[in-house]
UniProtKB/TrEMBL annotation:
This is Lys12p. One of its GO terms (cellular component) is mitochondrion. Keywords: Magnesium. It comes from Malassezia vespertilionis. The lineage of its organism: Eukaryota, Fungi, Dikarya, Basidiomycota, Ustilaginomycotina. InterPro entries: IsoCit/isopropylmalate_DH_CS, IsoPropMal-DH-like_dom.
Amino acid sequence: MRISTMAQQATRTLRIGMVPADGIGREVLPAAQRVMTAAPGIPPLEFVHLDAGFEYFQQHGTSLPQATIETLKGSCDGAMFGSVSSPSHKVEGYTSPIVRLRKELNLYANIRPVTGPVLPGSIYTKPVDMVTIRENTECLYVKQESLEDGPDGKVARAVRLITEKASTRIGRKALEIARARAALRNETGSTTPTKVTICHKSNVLSVTDGLFRTSVRSVYDADKPENGGEGRYARVGLDEQLVDSMVYRMFREPEVFDVIVAPNLYGDIISDGAAALAGSLGLVSSVNASDDFFMGEPVHGSAPDIAGQDKANPIASIRSAALMLEYMGFSEPALAIYKAVDEVLMDGKTLTPDLPGGTATTSQVVDAVLNAL
């Protein structure tokens, strides 16, 4: 889905904010930068280093300096985020910089495709082409938690926020992405059906998940001509799946899914799980999207056990950069990057250790992608 007119201004220099943050983020973002710069058809690029992360918090008392937010809002055309080492226990004063950035920049959609060639050793041997559209601002990620003493010990509570506004907005985003996929399939003669699957648990959480489900459905139903709509989604089907059974089906028969739309927590879990279908978290890209700003983000974490060893898989970051460029409207360089990455993966000679038989370094994989470009 190409929803920006920025490509029409390709003669000017694009300013890309680079937020490496923690761990291997400091290795994979420079890799993506090298590939973006070399992509054919790309306009002049200027990269701006910006601070954030848990390590920055340990040194300065904040995980996301205001200067980073203001630079991204005021002078950047797009951004890339590396990875963050958020601790699994409570650290007083610390909040995740990526969660806050999504809210500060109104990046309400996290778009995570899983596609590409089947690699040796993958748990699934058929091509997978699915994309998860995750609502990025609500659910349990509002982080309104409390801990108090009760008669039988500690009692922890968390607020889960689901609103009609955010659910309708993410439903419309998912349907528009599906509409674009249907149009592309029609152009190429593909007979693959296009559909959106609503992922929820409204049989138990009838109020919160119920509101999410009905809000997404209302966008689809309102578009039908018999309801006075424009029929924009006439080529798109709509179904739904309970989140627990969806996890089961996703691993058993992922080919039944196309575009999945989910609340924040479910979307996080199922899109990470879907990475196993691709072969590694190191291969899976995402883009955080508003209606006019896009920030690429590899799905993997900060991997402190291999940080600084030139072992990290740069493919997820490179694909995320291509995804960011695609949504900014630069489809030619994005497509060239996708094809170069697929060529390297299919060749199988230059893979990092997270992939079966892989022994290559981060640098060697980047060089292989550049050669393919």
